[in-house]
Amino acid sequence: MSRLAVVTALRSPDLAAAVGDLTAYLARCGLAVDPSMSTDADVVLVWADERLADDVVAGLLARAAGGVPVLLAGPTLEANLDHGALVDAAGVVAGRGTPTHECRLRPGPQAGEVAHRLDGDLVVTDRWLELDKTRDDVDVLMTAMTGLTAHAVLTWRPATRVGFCTTATAAATVRDPAVQRLVHRWVRRALGVADGPPVRVGILGYGAIGHEHSAAIASVEGLVLAGVCDKSAERVAAARAFAPGVTAYDDGDALLASPDVDLVVVSTPPNTHAEWALRALGAGKHVVVEKPFCLTTAEADEMTGAAARAGRSITVYQNRRWDADYLTVKRLVRSGAIGDVFHYESFVGGYGHPCNFWHSDEEVSGGAVYDWGSHFLDWILDLLPAPVAYVTAAAHKRRWHDVTNADHSRVTIAFADGVEAEFVHSDLAAAMKPKWYVLGTDGAIVGHWRHERVVSRSAIGTLVEDPLAASESPARITLHAADGSVTDVAVRPAPRVPFHRELADQLLSGAPMSVTAAGSRRNISVMEAATLSARDGGRPVTPL
Description:
By secondary structure, this protein is α/β, with parallel strands linked by helices. It is built from 17 helices and 27 strands.
């Protein structure tokens, strides 16, 4: 484990807190973080918005001369331009700082793995230091433009063991997950640590979600589709049409036994998730499980225990954690826009017959709560971190008797801090509730369903309108202030294939994932408690 010393000299409490959050992230990446300038550190990260003392600078330069990388981050270089030896070691002639503005950071000519798995340009609202000159032996990892001139904003100079980052001067930038991942990869570059070979992925069960995984794997550096397995020749053909030449299997055990597969995506029906995940872990594979993780907390504990014993990763494909509208709600709540959240409601559904596939078969799916609840309850638990005190639930079977899932279900979560959250999934809702209705001490957030139609033309030129399910359109988000004013909040585009990018980062560079097995186990415990409560007349059940 590499040892990281963090040196800070920050007058801004917000920036100091953000650097603390970044330091915690780097620790989760597997770095042994020392908040002091320890003599046995393998790399030193410096964040300062004021002039460093002469003896501190001398110590940093001595470290670099001794072969220990020194990384000058955020406003550090600009705040210490009068330390000529430090600036000279960085290999630049500094110009002037830019005003704060929307900056687009792009990979530089020597970016290499530092820029792997970036989702296009990295856009931040910040400032950076223009440079009059950068020495030829400086590796330029990321740049920002002024007019037609690209300025280095992230570097590494092997000859002097000094690198700098001249942006990330604002707390919000330092807390940006993409920036945190970039800093981690910068540290790895300075340490000379490279990614391993690509992760070879096998998909077990090529159903409706198969193309989504296949496309994501193809677009992420470090992931390679090595095999697909399905008993249906038609689905295997569909997989091969999307990924020509991929090795196909009609037997799951053959896929698990393949030495050409490092990771298995378990995309079988939910009541078989635990069985196949355990078999994959037993075969020495990393595992991604489709949602829901499994059907019981006992299964979740068995799976996570097996992964720990095997030294393998297991996670759940909670793809809607990155839905554009949910990210907007999360950003508003995290920013304090409505004060402290104390009441949360969410809804999905309408009036109509549920699907006739296994999703609507309680024995296979776990029940209606496990279907959309895998997403909506995951959002609740991601947003509200307090321990769950108890769960109550109700389920109605009144109309659709040819399927076994409930027609209408309600789950209420009481948190230990007094916050209440409710999720309703209904196929009997002739009138729809908002997707979100969140109350805080200073305001509220409402997510309004959109009812869109995809308009096209038939083969003979006539109008064709295809209604899009409301659940497939990002909700319109409004922010309600205490004075009664209402603001439409822009819903930013969702990131591209974020789960698979994080998956590659975890397996190739040790970066933590947003979706953890422990978090997914928490979701299962709530869904299991809700199922027990509904069966017993709505009695409160404490999750295991």
